[in-house]
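sorry to bug you again but im stuck and you know this stuff better than me. what follows is a protein written twice so to speak, once as letters and once as structure tokens for the fold. id like you to explain what the token line says about the fold, in plain words if possible. anything you notice is useful, everything is just below.
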Amino acid sequence: YTGNYSFHTQHEENAFWGVDLLQVRFADHIKIFNRKENSKKIQHFDIMLFTDMLTWEKIHTYQETFGGILDGNPFTCKINKKARYIRIQSKGKASLSYDQIAVFEKLTCN
């Protein structure tokens, strides 16, 4: 977490970042840490979950500004669902460029 970007997509229609969790897991929440130079720019994206690559569920649409590690104000979204793949996808033509994205699994104690 540096405040700079860790990845950057092309400027294209429905640009996306995704992660394969390698198996279905219970995702608790996700945090997106914005780049320092993007913290004032409105972000417009969907967060989607897949249990397979055929069936997806949009769980959140976002259109606001948010910060990152430097200001302590990352975007946080409660997921509270099972998923294998998680995708953040731009709305319309855009690029995605963030410092870090972290997905947190819900752990249970027996």
Observations:
- The CA atoms of residues 41 and 54 lie 32 Å apart.
